[in-house]
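stage 2 :: seqdesign
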């Protein structure tokens, strides 16, 4: 009986993990480079969020990726894009 309960619990946890939501916004603060107009920064932000989302969709995503892992991957792609555009990113 105990083995059956553990198996059921493991199955439920696996299903919850497999349904992890794909991030839709960064979890890091990026600041505009000095002298960058707000409109330019906002355009870069939208473009980099799109690039980060695209990388998650096209990457080799295993079914067992947790929400925290997906958010980390999204944040790293976003930060790399914003850094390439010259903005101030966290260290």
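stage 2 :: out
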């Amino acid at each position: 009986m105990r083995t059956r309960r553990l198996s059921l619990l493991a199955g439920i946890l696996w299903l919850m993990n497999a349904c992890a939501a794909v991030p839709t916004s960064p979890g890091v603060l990026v600041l505009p480079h000095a002298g960058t107009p707000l409109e330019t920064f906002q355009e870069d932000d939208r473009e980099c969020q799109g690039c980060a989302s695209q990388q998650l969709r096209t990457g080799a995503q295993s079914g067992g990726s947790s929400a925290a892992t997906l958010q980390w991957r999204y944040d790293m792609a976003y930060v790399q894009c914003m850094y390439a555009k010259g903005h101030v990113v966290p260290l």
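stage 3 :: structure notes
- The two ends are 50 Å apart (CA to CA).
- The helical segments are 2-18, 38-58, 67-84.
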